[in-house]
Specification:
Blueprint (H helix, E strand, L loop, with lengths): L3 E2 L6 H6 L3 E2 L3 H7 L2 E4 L13 H5 L5 E5 L8 H10 L2 E6 L18 E3 L8 H19 L15 H7 L2 H14 L7 E8 L7 H12 L12 H7 L4 E6 L7 E9 L2 E10 L4 E7 L2 E6 L3 E8 L4 H11 L4 E7 L6 E8 L5 H8 L4 E8 L1
Parallel strand pairs: 1-2, 3-4, 4-5, 5-6, 7-8
Antiparallel strand pairs: 7-9, 9-10, 10-11, 11-12, 13-15, 13-16, 14-15
Helix pairs in contact: 7-8, 8-9
Amino acid sequence: MEVLAFDKFVSAERFKDLGVEGVDSSEELYERADLLTIHLPKTPETINWIDADAIAKFKPGMRIVNCARGELIDLDDLIAGLESGQVGGAALDVFPSEPFTEHPVFQREDVVVTPHLGASTAEAQDRAGTDTAEQVMAALTGGVVTNAVNIASVSPAVMEALAPYVPLCETLGKVAVGLVPGTIDKVEVEFRGNIADSDTRLLGIAVQAGLLSGHTEEAVNLVNAPQMAEERGIEISTIKEPSADEFTDLIRVAIQSGDETVTVAGTAVGPKNLPYLVSIWDQSFYLPFAEHMAVFRYADQPGMIGKVGTAFGEQGVNIGSAAVGAESDSDQAVMVVTSDAEVADSTIEAIKGLDGFNSGYSIEL
């Protein structure tokens, strides 16, 4: 089937993403289509969108399906089109007024009519209730509301594939902004590996939500994050790279703040797609995210890990795990430490004051 579509509010790029050929006018649609399905709201502009003038432009024998709003078709003009053969048939489950029981359209063999009751079966009601409960639970627990109408529009299949990466992107945004010493000038998000082939707009919004989380009076979510980022002058650019080196998928966030660039990267691991932190400032390691984290940057020399452990012990902080990234071509190293409680600012300052340490940050997720 060759699918054509006309919608003056949809971009050519979006049609391409959907595998649909976008046409420039409804007239072009009328001339080329064999079957027309209507997906329009009722507005002053769309009432009687299909009338005698429109039907006259149809490809002869056009068939029409209307499951949108009954007022979109002039039924008297539809009857005339059916009688002339310009319209080959019609299927309707919406009508100008409902209930709707008296009209010549009901007497025709070339028209299929059904009540506007598509969801009114016991099975459909049970499914609707279950789906609603699952979506509400996802919304309240920080998950992805896959049926939301006011977030970036992607197909259900793509949404299912992207959903595990949304928490990862939000967390990367939170970690990255926690390492920025000043204001955010520029944000770049890079998608590497298989995920680069997907529509990643939703993931970019998740990064925005992470960047803003905890830094605004209003709660941030996938709906309002783009607007709030725009109001604060935070622009995000995207890079896609099919290769992800040692990872199947990798997401990297880079923030420019003055003369300094902060980079963090992560991936999703295992059948449950658990988010892992795999680099900071391009120093590589492998560590699951934790609620309480501390990050240190220091000169790559012996004894530095011991200094952090000693300082934590003196402050009464219990270390859960630690990872160190030290690339061979750099004289700097990065250490990430997780703990069972929030790391106090005094602990961070004490370690920053030790010889060889350049910076330290406490990150709360």
